[in-house]
Amino acid sequence: MMGFGSNGYPATIAKNMNAYNDVPEGVEIRGRYGEEFARILTKDALQFVADLQREFRNHIKYAMEYRKEAKRRYNEGALPGFDPATRYIREGEWTCAPVPQAVADRRVEITGPVERKMIINALNSGAKVFMADFEDALSPSWENLISGQVNLKDAVDGTISFHDKARNRVYKLNDRTAKLFVRPRGWHLPEAHILIDGEPATGCLVDFGLYFYHNYAAFRRNQGEGFGPFFYLPKMEHSREAKIWNSVFERAEMMAGIERGSIRATVLIETLPAVFQMDEILYELRDHSVGLNCGRWDYIFSYVKTFQGHPNRLLPDRVQVGMAQHFMKSYSDLLIRTCHRRGVHAMGGMAAQIPIRDDPAANEAALDLVRKDKLREVRAGHDGTWAAHPGLIPACMELFNNNMGNAPNQIQTMKREDAVNITEEDLLQRPRGVRTLEGLRLNTRVGIQYLAAWLTGSGSVPLYNLMEDAATAEISRVQNWQWLKYEAELDGDGLGVKVSRDLFGRIVEEEMARIEREVGKEKFRKGTYKEACKMFTRQCKAATLDDFLTLDAYNHIVRHHPKGSSRL
User: Fold this and answer.
1) How far is 58 from 64, CA to CA, in rounded Å?
2) pLDDT, tens digit (0-9, with 9 covering 90-100), for 312-363
3) Separation of alpha carbons 472 and 124, rounded Å
4) 491 is annotated as an active-site residue
5) Which of 86, 155, 305, 341 has fewest C-beta within 10 Å?
6) Burial of 104 (0-12, 13-18, 19+ CB in 10 A)
7) Residue pair 183/231 in contact by the 8 Å Cβ criterion
8) What is the distance between the alpha carbons of residues 553 and 470, in angstroms, rounded to a whole number?
9) What is the helix (H) or strand (E) element at residue 270, kind and residue range?
10) Tell me, what DSSP letter sits at residue 161?
11) 426 burial type by CB count under 10 A (0-12 exposed, 13-18 middle, 19+ buried)
């Protein structure tokens, strides 16, 4: 028989209500609360998150307003460029704090969402680093986020395990594992399940705050050799955003009573405005930096977004926008030169390919593309690279081992002084290539399928032998929007067809039919493909380009628990 509490609710719910009421003043939890989650949502941890929110929310709001102002300038015809006011930083002779020995060697890194089995496999993968992701590879439902915090706590403690009942297999950590980095969400994303003083918390402060509070001591003991925790920081557009992160780190170190400079972070250079701020970003984080990373998929997305008001900057098919494009090569070369001049890692980009087990020839062709890309990176001077799947790690590792030898990195040996002459024009050069109907079809097919998976809780989705995350879905969306907005000619097909609303409507219908054939009628019926299609096509046809696909879609995955109550 079910027991009842004094408030008339069943005892289990009454217990959870009491736990919800045991929160710091001004904090409300609106997500599900269970015994596992109670390990994370402790009063002291929530107080730390609330302290961060209250101290930095006005700085964050100002930084977001500055983004809007910059967008307005770009839409009126301005171009991003180097800031004359910070020339002294770019030309000055300074370096970041020495790289901790624990993360000196980062030649291959694997990335993935904070799912339990993924964390174990990635830490056991043979990579030097695992970046556990709360951002583009994760659909940020309450369940995913707080389960992810539980998983990371168990991983840092070394106790994590997973029983795969379907395979009757238990997964545990090996004796030697990759070093753990954590990527919180970007500044722009809210956390609607935690209210602080009546406002949704800032998503990245929730991710950072809960993880840091519960793990800093064990991490420094078990992983960081006296340093850490380690982070990746996404989506920055300006050094003022890096300055906020630096202040957050200092506040966390003070709370924990650990030395300044213990926390270390790598910043993803994945927005076009940020490429002109690389020295400034490193300068703001100079006590806490372990380098920059070429977040190339988001960078392409940002190129379109930055130039949304420039009809003379239409991108070719996304498959043609690779690192051989002059503006992409210039970005990579300047990043290497900047990082090595300042004494930190210059990390390469993502290999998104996944093994093709049923087609050896296609698998070998895909691996060959990966090898060529990674050979280019290591010869250019990158200190490491990213892989999306454990199956790519041996090939990536072999190339970096063969070209780097026993040295942990190339910081001292590949200064890339030749990149000193890279100009604003180099970094902004229009991509070369053609636009095709197949490019429009692929964008549509990938965008809809990714969003359908995201809405049902998956943020890392295998599609057409690539591991897609939010970045590639964003390229699909903004490119479709750009081509529709400016009625781009599909000049690669030789037919002179222009992208119109009518054409796009027909493409959407045909691609939805293709998706149904590919996934099967039953999966299509049970999935959220139709909802995703409406959302994706609405954003592609919008008069004004939404900043992020996930901001609009986030409202569809918020689940207050139970419905109608803010305290349960």
Assistant:
1) 10
2) 999 999 999 999 999 999 999 999 999 999 999 999 999 889 889 889 999 9
3) 27
4) no
5) 86
6) middle
7) yes
8) 11
9) none
10) E
11) middle
Q: What is the pTM of this model?
A: 0.94
pLDDT of residue 563: 44
Say whether 426 is catalytic.
no
Q: Check: CB of residue 306 under 8 Å from CB of residue 238.
A: no
Enter the tokens of residue 412: 């001292």
Whether residue 494 contacts residue 435, with contact meaning beta carbons closer than 8 Å, is answered with: no
Q: Which tokens sit at 17?
A: 């209500």
Distant-in-sequence contacts of 459-464, Cβ < 8 A, 24+ apart: 459/113, 459/133, 459/136, 459/137, 459/138, 459/139, 459/140, 459/144, 460/112, 460/113, 460/133, 460/137, 460/138, 460/388, 462/354
3-state secondary structure 364-433: HHHHHHHHHHHHHHHHHCCCEEEECCHHHHHHHHHHHHHHHCCCCCCCCCCCCHHHHHCCHHHHHCCCCC
Question: Which one from 220, 445, 469, 477 is the annotated catalytic residue?
Answer: 469
HEC assignment per residue over 486-543: CCCECCCCCCCCECCHHHHHHHHHHHHHHHHHHHCHHHHHHCCHHHHHHHHHHHHHCC
The amino acid that residue 57 corresponds to is R
Would you state the structure tokens that stand for residue 293, as one six-digit string?
């990373």
pLDDT block averages, 10 residues each, the chain of length 568: 42 48 92 94 98 98 98 98 98 98 98 97 98 97 98 98 93 97 97 98 98 98 96 98 98 98 98 98 98 95 97 95 96 98 97 90 92 96 96 96 95 95 97 97 97 95 91 95 98 93 98 98 96 97 95 92 46
